[in-house]
């Protein structure tokens, strides 16, 4: 992405806001969270299929077997996207639908699903934004060591090549990996996500292989025709709980561990300095070769949900920085603080540290309890509405402060399968009744439609970010 937007068109009706022409308004989802039918048409199982079918791993044993049934209802979902006026749709591809064994023979039926989806998006003038890996590793590859096996960079590159060959004539924007930090932290250090390992010696290995796979994936995508290639990271600014030196230091460690762990290697070619200290003998990467990892990206996707305030506490694993003040508010299912200022900060921080590269907010949103609504056919979600207003205003402020933000994607289009939390958390701007699969655009969805139609203009006067 150089100077122009990837659509080349401006679907907005007004340019009142400070959002640049061509700024992309989208919504995001991921394969395992919405598709259902995980084994249909020759697909192989993923690690999430196995994990969710293992007793005790997810909220009430819930799985993605049905989820939003999007694999079968995708056309109706495209109609909803049109109704919302989305300019872009970010979705991920299930690796094991396309390559049931993770490598080798392509399952054309699986690939056809994404071909149809892309064609349906283009027919509706919605820009498809593809994420190659959003956490659902083919189980067959996990059997071979998954993210711990150095061969995974090659496996991932081959998969990227298959997808780019199939789609790059119609898809401009490809992201390699969604939130690699979560893959390593939740999947290999704490064991709360697939594949469920809790091992401080595996964490550094997984980190390194995720980075090598990203680097190899970028090359494979470009070689096979992808025009815009990026990475998606989740960033969460770390604020010290006080001005005490120990707390300032704890916030820095937490920042290196989470916010810099993938960006420093991917964009600057070195690991953050404090990882050695955090992992001690478990961190083998002091002189790691990152020459295949560091590469110029066409864009960086940032997922932002909250900040964290931390204090020094040597017992807090693994960084010695303990988050404070994140008690679960009654109206919130996640316990995440609503703090839009940190979104502005994230965008300006990335711009200062890594240079003025094109940025997208590839996810932003919140899970609230949607209050019951007396009116038939309406889902009133005032807290989510306020959340969107304040966060999109925070993005606008970052643009005014010099960040090159090219688009914003609401997380999520649909209420969906929230990983280990199952169906207990609703992030959608469209309500899904999981018993009937009925979809209802929430008030936040209607608000977002107005924001899109006015190109952010209806937020004029909002300064509460
Ligand atoms: C992930 C999504 C997830 C969302 C809300 C992000 O970390 O990419 O898959 O649903 O956050 O937790």
Brief characterization of the structure:
One of its GO terms (biological process) is cellulose catabolic process. This is Beta-glucosidase. The chain is α/β, with parallel strands linked by helices and 465 residues long.
Distance separating the two termini: 28 Å
Largest sheet features: 8 strands, parallel, barrel
Specify the overall morphology: globular
Q: Please estimate the helix content.
A: 25-40%
- For CATH, the homologous superfamily is named as Glycosidases
Enzyme class: hydrolase
EC number: 3.2.1.21
Pfam family, one: Glyco_hydro_1
Protein name: Beta-glucosidase
Protein topology:
Elements: E1 24-28, H1 31-34, H2 47-52, H3 70-84, E2 88-92, H4 95-98, H5 108-123, E3 127-133, H6 139-142, H7 152-167, E4 173-178, H8 180-189, H9 202-223, E5 228-234, E6 238-240, H10 245-258, H11 263-268, H12 275-279, E7 299-303, E8 308-312, E9 321-323, H13 341-354, E10 359-364, H14 382-400, E11 405-411, E12 430-433, E13 438-441, H15 443-453
Parallel strand pairs: 1-2, 1-11, 2-3, 3-4, 4-5, 5-7, 6-8, 7-10, 10-11
Antiparallel strand pairs: 8-9, 12-13
Helix pairs in contact: 3-5, 7-9, 8-9, 13-14, 14-15
The site of beta-D-glucopyranose (BGC) has 11 residues, from loops.
Keywords: Carbohydrate metabolism, Cellulose degradation, Glycosidase, Hydrolase, Polysaccharide degradation
GO molecular function: beta-glucosidase activity
Family: Belongs to the glycosyl hydrolase 1 family.
């Amino acid at each position: 992405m150089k100077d122009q937007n990837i659509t080349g068109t401006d679907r907005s009706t007004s340019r009142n806001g400070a959002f640049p022409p061509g700024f992309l308004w989208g919504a995001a989802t991921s394969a395992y969270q919405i598709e259902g039918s995980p084994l249909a048409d020759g697909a192989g199982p993923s690690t999430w299929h196995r994990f969710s079918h293992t007793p005790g791993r997810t909220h009430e044993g819930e799985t993605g077997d049905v989820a939003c049934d999007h694999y079968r209802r995708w056309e109706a979902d495209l109609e909803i996207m049109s109704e919302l006026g989305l300019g872009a749709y970010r979705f991920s591809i299930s690796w094991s639908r396309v390559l049931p064994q993770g490598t080798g023979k392509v399952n054309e039926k699986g690939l056809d699903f994404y071909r149809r989806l892309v064609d349906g998006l283009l027919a509706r003038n919605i820009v498809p934004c593809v994420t190659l890996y959003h956490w659902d590793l083919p189980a067959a590859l996990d059997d071979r060591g998954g993210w711990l096996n150095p061969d995974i960079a090659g496996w991932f590159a081959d998969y990227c090549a298959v997808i780019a060959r199939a789609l790059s004539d119609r898809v401009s924007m490809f992201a390699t990996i969604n939130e690699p930090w979560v893959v390593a932290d939740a999947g290999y250090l704490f064991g709360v996500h697939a594949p469920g390992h809790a091992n401080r010696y595996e964490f550094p290995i997984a980190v390194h292989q995720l980075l090598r796979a990203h680097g190899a994936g970028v090359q494979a995508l470009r070689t096979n025709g992808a025009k815009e290639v990026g990475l998606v990271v989740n960033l969460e600014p770390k604020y010290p709980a006080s001005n005490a030196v120990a707390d300032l230091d704890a916030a820095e460690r937490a920042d290196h561990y989470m916010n810099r762990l993938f960006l420093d290697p991917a964009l600057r070619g070195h690991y953050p300095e404090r990882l050695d200290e955090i992992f001690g003998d478990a961190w083998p990467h002091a002189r790691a070769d990152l020459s295949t990892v560091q590469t110029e990206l066409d864009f960086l996707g940032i997922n932002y949900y909250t900040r964290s305030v931390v204090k020094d506490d040597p017992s807090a694993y693994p960084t010695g920085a303990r988050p404070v003040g994140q008690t679960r508010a009654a109206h919130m299912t996640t316990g995440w603080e609503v703090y839009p200022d940190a979104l502005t900060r994230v965008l300006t921080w990335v711009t200062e540290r890594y240079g003025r590269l094109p940025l997208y907010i590839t996810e932003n949103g919140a899970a609230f309890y949607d209050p019951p609504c007396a009116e038939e056919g309406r889902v009133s979600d005032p807290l989510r509405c306020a959340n969107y207003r304040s966060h999109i205003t925070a993005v606008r402020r970052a643009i005014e402060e010099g960040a090159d933000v090219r688009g914003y994607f609401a997380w999520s289009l649909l209420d969906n399968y929230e990983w280990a939390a199952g169906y207990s958390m609703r992030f959608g701007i469209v309500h899904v009744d999981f018993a009937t699969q009925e979809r209802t655009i929430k008030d936040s969805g209607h608000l977002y439609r107005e924001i899109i139609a006015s190109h952010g203009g209806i937020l004029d006067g909002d300064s509460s970010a």
